[in-house]
Design a protein that fits this description.
Length: 344
């Protein structure tokens, strides 16, 4: 049986995945839908059987559940709980109802979360109870962008001390991956973007070489292979562009290089990988939510943030009232923001 929690959303970030929903390129979405999946809020009320939180407590609703019972939850090597939207549609609550209506018409949920709403309802398998002092307009980024990028480097790529890394795409997710590579002890971090305005923050966060592919006549994978004397140990794609995913694999070192995919490609696209790349010993993997077991890990990430083990404040370019949501999307399209956080 599933138990439900009503949450007052206080702050929500905007992630490129929300734009995929708006553009119709995220798989298996029913419309009309309320997007938003990077939020933080306060428990408003709890349903029968809820034991993990009480009204008034601060929480982060999770885009990836951790039911604690399925074979994936019981396996330490994966975070892909079988209740996730990868396996089961989450446009409706687990009891197949919608909790949103507009003018009498039902509106769909997005991954159960729908943080572009003042109130939302979540099943208790997808809630992280967090520190009472946590600033919700910052820690909302643990709901997606920061956790995904940082975890992609630490948990999925498993970046090693002294290694060479390349991070493609310097939005909120890619900059968090740069921070993860740095925290893991990488000695050289290439940061690649077609928007040079991203480079100063990337350098502040740990990038050693910032490259714009448009500045070179050769393909970027050849440039990086030459600059790194044969290829990088770890490449992380944080854009969602299948041609860049191919380039990321190709710039890794023959024998052991690993390419980690984070970006969500348009529905129906696939990566044009030559099997020869894999025969040469390169590896390719991908991350969902940075490999974190969500319910267990997000409270710990928030505690580490409160203990100043890392800072994600620099990722928040703008904090705006919720009714400026269209401006916030424009900042993302124009490359002017890493993250905009909207507050209710
Ligand atoms: P964003 O749009 O803020 O950042 C993308 C960055 O890539 C921007 O700085 C662009 O300028 C840059 N860029 C675009 N095209 C190119 C190119 N051809 N070469 C180099 N740079 C380029 O997005 P985001 O950081 O919010 O999200 C990044 C991706 O990660 C996106 O596809 C999103 O859907 C995905 C994502 N995946 C997960 C997951 O669990 N796997 C979670 C969250 C987001
Ligand atoms: Zn996201
Ligand atoms: Zn599970």
């Amino acid at each position: 049986m599933c138990s439900f929690i009503s949450i007052q959303i206080v702050a929500t970030g905007i992630c490129r995945t929300d734009d995929h929903v708006l553009k119709g390129s995220f798989p298996n979405i029913d419309y009309p839908v309320i997007p938003g999946h990077e939020g933080a809020g306060i428990v408003e009320s709890i349903g029968e059987g809820v034991t993990c939180v009480k009204p008034g407590e601060k929480v982060i609703p999770l885009c990836l559940p951790q039911c604690g019972e399925c074979s994936s939850c019981l396996n330490p090597d994966t975070n892909c709980c079988l209740k996730t939207h990868l396996y089961e549609s989450q446009n409706l609550m687990p009891d197949k109802t919608s909790r949103f209506t507009c003018k009498g018409k039902a509106i769909h949920h997005f991954l159960w979360i729908s943080t572009f709403s003042e109130y939302t309802v979540m099943p208790d398998s997808a809630i992280a109870r967090i520190d009472d002092d946590a600033p919700l307009d910052k820690v909302c980024l643990f709901g997606c962008g920061f956790s995904t990028g940082y975890g992609a480097a630490i948990n999925t790529a498993k970046v090693e001390p002294g290694s060479t890394c390349a991070v493609f795409g310097l939005g909120g997710v890619g900059l968090s991956a740069v921070m993860g590579c740095k925290a893991a002890g990488a000695s050289r971090i290439f940061a690649i973007d077609i928007n040079k305005d991203k480079f100063s923050l990337a350098k502040e966060l740990g990038a050693t070489d910032c490259l714009n592919p448009q500045d070179f006549k050769k393909p970027i994978q050849e440039v990086i292979t030459e600059m790194s004397n044969g290829g990088v140990d770890f490449a992380i794609e944080c854009i969602g562009n299948v041609a860049v995913m191919k380039a990321a694999l190709e710039c890794t070192m023959v024998g052991w290089g690993t390419c980690t995919i984070v970006g969500v490609a348009l529905s129906g696209q696939s990566i044009p990988v030559s099997p020869m790349q894999l025969i040469m010993g390169k590896k390719i993997n991908a991350t969902f939510f940075g490999g974190w077991k969500s319910v267990d890990s997000v409270p710990k990430l928030v505690s580490d943030y409160m203990a100043k083990k890392f800072s994600l404040d620099a990722l928040v370019t703008y904090t705006l009232p919720f009714d400026k949501i269209n401006d916030a999307f424009d900042f993302m399209y124009e490359g002017k923001s890493n993250r905009t956080v909207l507050v209710f």
